[in-house]
Write a structure and sequence with these properties.
The protein has helices at residues 24-37, 51-60, 81-95, 112-124, 138-146, 166-174, 196-205, 209-219, 231-238, 247-254, 269-276; strands at 3-5, 11-13, 17-18, 41-43, 69-74, 102-105, 131-134, 154-158, 178-182, 223-224. With 279 residues, it is an alpha/beta fold. This is Aldo/keto reductase.
């Protein structure tokens, strides 16, 4: 496994296993499968309702806790100092651990400044080895970064071959923050798995479009957390460290970027109203 070093010196695997939309009833099995295959980074969230399954797997896997990298996120309904502080303790209980390796704000809505203060306290208390944000666009990220004691170590945002976050990556680099991808396969949108460029390049290495896309992101300095409930697909997603894309291939895939989200925009009033309904 390859690692990146976060702005506080913590090492984070460049490839992990995400459990977004994994049924809570099968989450423990999926995480145990992933760990058995060699995954050491597991990404969950309060909103996924499967922290308990991740916690059961952590307790049962037989891997020392210090060899695992566990991420969770504070949801909008727990925004604000007091709610966030309480929810972080609940997450630790669900995860059956005294600390998480990365603690993120899930969305930039509600009193996320209060949430971040609670996270800074958790960081100081050793309950989080690193803290950061998710889904923060450059403007809100810059604002929070300038007025926080502990600089965000990570911003987990939609990043895939069709939305490569070129502007956001420059901003994050300027602030010493690591970009992490959610949705590295774009959830199959825009003909992802049959894209001619990914297929053509993959045929040269006997790799699938998904593997080529993951390799592209990793070589671009992006941490990835692909999700699958199938053990063979988990294994395939992990098998991306035995080939390297050429400069020309990187440029070909780079040209697929549209610069636009395939999911939602925080600039869309209807999207924001929907998020506000959750607070």
């Amino acid at each position: 496994m390859e690692y990146v070093t976060l702005n506080n010196g913590v090492k984070m695997p460049v490839l992990g296993y995400g459990v977004y939309q994994v049924d809570p009833a099968e989450c423990e099995r999926c995480v145990l499968d992933a760990i058995a295959l060699g995954y050491r980074s597991i990404d969950t969230a309060q909103a996924y309702a499967n922290e308990g399954g991740v916690g059961n797997a952590i307790a049962a896997c037989g891997i020392p806790r210090d060899q695992l990298f566990i991420t969770t996120k504070v949801w909008i309904s727990n925004a604000g100092y007091e709610k966030a502080k309480k929810s972080i303790q609940e997450s630790l209980q669900n995860l059956k651990t005294d600390y998480v390796d990365l603690l993120l704000i899930h969305q930039p809505f509600g009193d996320y400044y209060g949430t971040y203060r609670a996270m800074e306290e958790s960081y100081a208390a050793g309950q989080a080895r690193a803290i950061g944000v998710s889904n923060f666009y450059p403007d809100r990220f810059i604002d929070l970064a300038h007025f926080s004691k502990v600089k965000p170590a990570v911003n987990q945002i939609e990043t895939h071959v069709f939305q490569q976050q070129k502007t956001a990556r420059k901003v994050l680099a300027n602030h010493g923050a690591q970009i992490e991808s959610w949705g590295p396969f774009a959830e199959g949108k825009n003909g992802f798995f049959t894209n001619p460029t990914l297929l053509r390049i993959g045929s040269r290495y006997d790799k699938s479009p998904a593997q080529v896309a993951l390799r592209f992101l990793i070589q671009s300095g992006v941490v990835v957390i692909p999700k699958s409930t199938h053990k063979e697909r988990m294994k395939e997603n992990l098998d991306v460290f035995d080939f390297t894309l050429t400069r020309e291939e990187m440029a070909e895939i780079g040209a697929l970027d549209t610069g636009n989200s395939l999911f939602f925009s925080h600039q869309d009033p209807k999207t924001v109203e929907w998020f506000m309904s959750l607070v």
